[in-house]
Design a protein that fits this description.
By secondary structure, the protein is mostly helical. It contains 9 helices and no strands. It starts with a helix and ends with a helix.
Length: 200
């Protein structure tokens, strides 16, 4: 009985990768912000900014859990032919597979120079305004969010590249069902940093 339950739990990420990703992304993003507020900023649980935490949870569920799965698993398989084959090779085979390394390099380029700067960050700032902002009007969320995005563009991109470029080398090499869970490991620290830097 215990073995069956354990194997079901351990098999869930592979059997239900999208649902698993939604759960992990939401919990990870909310948890990273909560850790930042309570440990780094030394707030008691009574002083935690729950609207701020909600903005991270909503962003984690919708963007990191939903959209990013669609983009980096579903669409990357279509756009970058050979992704699945390359990710199933052993490390020894990967380093000798020049076409596969080229596919990985294209994914890294797309992630670091298109996805993160022009999709991830604008969405982050708009969601943050929608949840934490004072206006009930969506057009204000977009205007204020994009204004913050533009104002922080250069330092945000420097920080992003210093973390995600080396992380992507690993992330775009692991088997597809582990791609986003691996990304979430790095993203926990990244989200805590982003919460500290841009949360309030």
């Amino acid at each position: 009985m215990a073995t069956t339950v354990a194997s079901r739990i351990l098999g869930f990420p592979r059997a239900q990768p999208f649902n698993f990703n939604l759960l992990v992304a939401t919990a990870k993003t909310s948890g990273a912000d909560l850790l930042t507020q309570t440990v780094v900023e030394k707030k008691s649980l009574g002083d935690v900014d729950w609207r701020r935490n909600a903005s991270f949870a909503v962003f984690g569920f919708l963007y990191l859990g939903g959209f990013q799965y669609w983009l980096q698993v579903t669409m990357f398989k279509r756009w970058f032919v050979g992704v699945e084959r390359f990710t199933q090779l052993s490390l020894r085979e990967k380093v000798r597979d020049l076409p596969g390394l080229g596919v990985a390099a294209k994914q890294i380029f797309f992630d670091c120079f298109i996805h993160l700067p022009f999709m991830y960050y604008p969405t982050f700032y708009v969601v943050k305004e929608a949840v934490q902002g004072d206006s009930p009007q969506p057009d204000r969320w977009v205007a204020q969010g994009l204004s913050k995005y533009v104002g922080n563009f250069v330092p945000d991109q420097r920080a992003m590249l210093s973390v995600w470029f080396p992380a992507d080398i690993v992330i775009f090499s692991v088997p597809l069902y582990l791609r986003l869970p691996t990304r979430h490991v790095v993203s926990f620290g990244w989200t805590a940093y982003l919460s500290f830097l841009r949360g309030a």
